[in-house]
């Protein structure tokens, strides 16, 4: 709760900035219930609100562009029991300032938190200045959220000197604390990219460092409470409050290794699609996403693009919703005929076309794919002495034609400086992308950096096997499987630098962080070099 005099100050500033707020809101999205001018409808009569922290899940921002971004919060005074709000709409006020103390408010407004969307709010801001920091806060009556910080992207024709960002994935709550996020929040970053496994859908496991709140989640209420459990973590909240986050999902936001409408376990298609609809809705409700991502039933438009001026273009992919089923077996498989059937795809035709047009039309120095599963080939069979190549069919290796079409396109159109950012596998990797991984003379057309998990485990028994497979996969330059953390990138027009940041332990909420290894890609040259 804010002191009374502070609230009075806010009111005066709101009055003084009413014209800019109205201008901003006139430009805001015209969706019913999305956002509306402060006071335009005389204010909603407030029902009595539950006690407890309305903003227990913190604040977040994301989907930045040069003139705006999305602010997020969700009212949840009883976060692990359905949220705790009465099933009525509630007005939430927001304000955006150019200083951490919110003295210079440049926009303010009111948005309706609706019970059918879990009392989550997404405020799309427009008409901001490119390439600058802003601070924001939500309030309901005299109850206010913490202050969050966020940042717009540089203008489209600007070539910024530098971009610093972090890559995160795989934050199994049961596997450990978000020690990595405690350190990430202290980094000097412009944004964070999260490539999925933001939650895990599983039930309570034996030996959990901190147990899940329920059995395996399947319904909207269960997914909501699971997101709430994860988002209650203070380290995760600190990262969201410090940087805008660009998010995409992997499989565990719904069901392990699901593919489009095919679940991990046998169950009727309609049953799984109802579950997918619940999972997608809960994902939208808890992420700082634009309204174009708002799901309709079991469908959600998540692949989208972001330009950091002309320095980097981020193509954010969804490799789960449109993929054909993993066909050749699990967890390791030969490349069976179905894997190379023409209809086999990891991204679907529409997304593949969209990606190619975004690569071809790019003016960026660096062309980034932010996506889930490892793209470079990884044959484990030869190292195991299996007498044949064996691949993880859940990765791009299970969809070689999809990969071939994209890498051939990059080579043929001479798309410069392709950098693929990956999560999913709970271990650190670096390598080079080639149209023909089996041919040492095949050109390098891109680089791939795979981040380890924030907390999820990688089997220690697999570590020597993976390390031993590197000589049989010469395009893979780095592997490390024992450490949790994140990737930190420092990007300039001349160089892409990657630092593998690893925490000492995830058995404690905080610990030291160190750089395990660093690599660089020189613009125009391709190839990953150790620093
Ligand atoms: Fe994961």
Describe the overall structure.
The chain is an alpha+beta fold. The chain is 20% helix and 24% strand. It is built from 10 helices and 22 strands. The chain has 2 domains: 148 residues, Immunoglobulin-like (Sandwich), CATH 2.60.40; 368 residues, Alkaline phosphatase D (PhoD) (Purple Acid Phosphatase, chain A, domain 2), CATH 3.60.21.70. The strands form 4 sheets. It has a 7-stranded mixed β-sheet. Fe (ii) ion binds next to loops. The site of fe (ii) ion has 6 residues, from loops.
In brief, what are we looking at here?
The chain has 531 residues and is α+β, with helices and mostly antiparallel strands. The protein has 10 helices and 22 strands. The longest helix is centred in the middle third of the chain and has 18 residues, at 269-286.
Q: What would you say the CATH architecture of the largest domain is?
A: 4-Layer Sandwich
Spatial strand arrangement across the major sheet = 11-10-9-19-20-21-22
Q: Which parts are unreliable, with pLDDT below 50 for 5 consecutive residues or more?
A: 1-43
Q: Give the names of the bound compounds.
A: fe (ii) ion
Helix content: 10-25%
User: CATH topology of the largest domain, anyone?
Assistant: Purple Acid Phosphatase, chain A, domain 2
From the structure above, extract its key features.
10 helices, seven-stranded mixed sheet, 531 residues, disordered N terminus, Purple Acid Phosphatase, chain A, domain 2, binds fe (ii) ion, alpha+beta, Immunoglobulin-like
Topology:
Layout lengths: L3 H13 L1 H10 L31 E7 L2 E7 L15 E8 L7 E9 L6 E6 L7 E8 L2 E2 L3 E4 L11 E6 L10 H6 L6 E4 L25 H12 L2 H9 L2 E3 L21 H18 L17 E5 L3 E5 L32 H12 L5 E5 L10 H4 L15 H13 L5 E5 L5 E6 L12 E5 L11 H8 L6 E5 L4 E7 L3 E9 L9 E10 L6 E2 L1
Parallel strand pairs: 9-10, 10-11, 13-14, 14-15, 15-17
Antiparallel strand pairs: 1-2, 2-5, 3-4, 3-6, 6-7, 6-8, 9-19, 12-13, 16-17, 16-18, 19-20, 20-21, 21-22
Helix pairs in contact: 4-6, 7-9
Bound molecules: fe (ii) ion (FE2).
């Amino acid at each position: 709760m804010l002191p009374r005099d502070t609230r009075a100050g806010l009111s005066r500033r709101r009055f003084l900035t009413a014209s800019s707020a109205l201008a901003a809101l006139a430009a805001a999205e015209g969706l019913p219930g999305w956002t509306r001018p402060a006071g335009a409808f005389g204010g909603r009569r407030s029902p009595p609100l539950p006690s407890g922290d309305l903003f227990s899940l913190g604040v977040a921002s994301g989907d930045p562009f040069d003139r705006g971004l999305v602010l997020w919060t969700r009212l949840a005074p009883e976060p692990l029991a359905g949220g705790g709000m009465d099933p009525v709409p509630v007005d939430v006020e927001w304000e955006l300032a150019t200083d951490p103390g919110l003295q210079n408010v440049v926009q303010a407004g009111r948005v309706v938190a609706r019970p059918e969307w879990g009392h989550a709010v997404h405020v799309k801001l427009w008409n901001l200045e490119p390439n600058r920091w802003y601070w924001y806060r939500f309030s309901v009556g005299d109850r206010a959220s913490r202050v969050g910080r966020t940042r717009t992207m540089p203008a489209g024709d600007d070539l910024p000197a530098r971009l610093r960002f972090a890559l995160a994935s795989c934050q199994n709550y049961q596997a450990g604390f978000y020690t990595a996020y405690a350190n990430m929040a202290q980094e000097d970053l412009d944004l964070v990219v999260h490539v999925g496994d933001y939650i895990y859908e599983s039930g309570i496991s034996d030996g959990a460092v901190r147990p899940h709140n329920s059995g395996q989640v399947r319904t909207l209420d269960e997914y909501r409470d699971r997101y709430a459990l994860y988002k209650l973590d203070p380290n995760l909240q600190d990262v969201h409050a410090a940087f805008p986050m660009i998010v995409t999902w992997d499989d565990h936001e719904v069901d392990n290794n699901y593919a489009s409408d095919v679940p991990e376990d046998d169950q009727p298609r309609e049953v799984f699609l109802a579950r997918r609809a619940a999972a997608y809705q809960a994902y939208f409700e808890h992420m700082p996403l634009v309204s174009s991502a708002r799901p309709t039933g079991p469908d959600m438009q998540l692949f989208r693009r972001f330009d950091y001026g002309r320095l980097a273009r981020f193509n954010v992919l969804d490799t789960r919703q449109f993929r054909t089923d993993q066909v050749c077996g699990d967890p390791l498989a030969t490349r069976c005929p179905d894997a190379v059937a023409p209809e086999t795809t990891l991204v679907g035709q529409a997304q593949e076309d969209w990606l190619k047009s975004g690569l071809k039309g790019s003016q960026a120095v660096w062309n980034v794919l932010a996506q889930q599963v490892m793209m470079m080939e990884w044959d484990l069979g030869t190292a195991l002495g299996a007498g044949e190549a064996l691949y993880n069919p859940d990765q791009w290796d299970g969809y070689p034609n999809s990969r071939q079409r994209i890498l051939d396109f990059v080579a043929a159109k001479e798309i410069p400086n392709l950098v693929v950012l990956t999560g999913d596998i709970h271990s650190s990797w670096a390598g080079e992308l080639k149209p023909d991984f089996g041919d040492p003379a095949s050109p390098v057309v891109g680089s791939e950096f795979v981040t380890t998990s924030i907390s999820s485990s990688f089997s220690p028994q697999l570590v020597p096997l993976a390390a031993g497979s590197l000589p049989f996969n010469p395009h893979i330059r780095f592997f490390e499987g024992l450490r949790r953390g994140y990737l930190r990138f420092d990007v300039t027009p001349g160089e892409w630098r990657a630092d593998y940041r690893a925490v000492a332990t995830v058995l404690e909420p905080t610990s030291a962080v160190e750089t395990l290894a660093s690599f660089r890609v020189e613009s125009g040259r391709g190839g990953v070099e150790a620093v």
